[in-house]
Amino acid sequence: MTAGGCAVRPGHAPAQFHMLTTGYARRTDNDGGWVAASASVLLREGQQVVVTDPGGNADTLLAALALQQVMPEDVTTVFLTHGHIDHIVNLSLFPSAVVCDGFVTARGDRLIPCNGLLPGTTMRLLETPGHCAEHYALVAETQIGRVAVAGDLFWWEDDAPPQAGGAGSTALSSHIELAPEALIGLPDTIATDPAALAASRRALLALEPRWIVPGHGGVIRVA
Ligand SMILES: [Zn+2]
C-alpha cells in the first residue's frame, strides 16, 4: 500500500486517459477581462465516458472529441472541478450526461451524493478548497499512471508559466516537470483562501499522482 492507497483493482483495467484541450488564461488589454478556458480531459473506464471541465471553447472541444471518435451523446458523465464560468460554459453540449461536482451527481434535478468516487468508476474525488470554497480534484489510475485532474488547484497565466525543472518525452506530447515543493508554492492570484489552497495541494500530492492536469497551463509531471 502506497501513500496514495491501492492502484488499479485486481482484474480492473486502468482508465484510458486522453487530453482533449489544454487550458489557457490571458488577460485582455483594455476591458479588465480574460480569454480563458479550462483544460478538458477524456477518461474512459468500463462503460463510462467521462469529460472533465468542458470549458468554453466549443469548437476546440468538439474537434478533440471527434478525433477520439466520441460524439457528445456518448459522454456519460461530466465532472466539474468547480463552478467558475471558464470551466462550465460547454456543459450544454452534453445534455444526456450526468454532471458531477465532486459532492453530488446530478441527473436533472435528482442529486445523489458521490461519497468520494465518480459514479460507475474507480476514480477518486478529493475535496480541494482554496482557489474557491467548493472545489474537487479527480484522481484516476490510467494507462500512463496515476493522473490528477486538478482544476484550478494549480493554474497559471499564459505569460507567467512556472519554472520547469526539466522536460521529457512521454505519452503526452509536452509537459513540464515540477517538484512537489514548487507545486505547493505556485501563485494563485485569485485564490479565496491561500492557507486552504496549500493544504489542498499537500493532500493531493500525498496521493502521489504521476501527472497533474492543471486548470490552465501545460500538463505537469510530478518530479
Ligand atoms: Zn479556471
Keywords:
14% helix; 223 residues; alpha/beta; seven-stranded mixed sheet; globular; six-stranded mixed sheet; Metallo-beta-lactamase, Chain A; binds zinc ion; 33% strand
Low-confidence stretches: 1-6
Q: Helix and strand succession?
A: EEEEEHEHEEEEEEEHHEE
Strand content: 25-35%
CATH class label: Alpha Beta
| Mean pLDDT rating | 92
Instruction: Provide a count of the helices.
Output: 4
The 3D shape can be described as globular
Number of domains: 1
Global Rg: 16 Å
What is the annotated CATH architecture?
4-Layer Sandwich
Kindly summarize this structure in a few lines.
By secondary structure, the protein is of the alpha/beta class. Helices cover 14% and strands 33% of the residues.
Describe the structure.
The protein has helices at 58-67, 85-88, 180-184, 194-205, and strands at residues 16-21, 24-27, 34-37, 40-45, 48-52, 77-79, 98-100, 104-107, 110-113, 124-127, 136-142, 145-155, 176-178, 211-216, 220-222. The protein is of the alpha/beta class. The protein has one domain (16-222): Metallo-beta-lactamase, Chain A, CATH 3.60.15.10. The strands form three sheets. The chain has a seven-stranded mixed beta sheet with strand order 1-4-5-6-7-8-9. A six-stranded mixed beta sheet has the order 10-11-12-14-15-13. Strands 2-3 form a two-stranded antiparallel sheet. β7 and β8 (104-107) form a beta hairpin. The longest helix is centred in the last third of the chain and has 12 residues, at 194-205. The radius of gyration is 16 Å and the shape is globular. Mean pLDDT is 92; it is low at 1-6. Bound molecules: zinc ion. Zinc ion is lined by residues 38, 84, 86-87, 152, 155, 215-216.
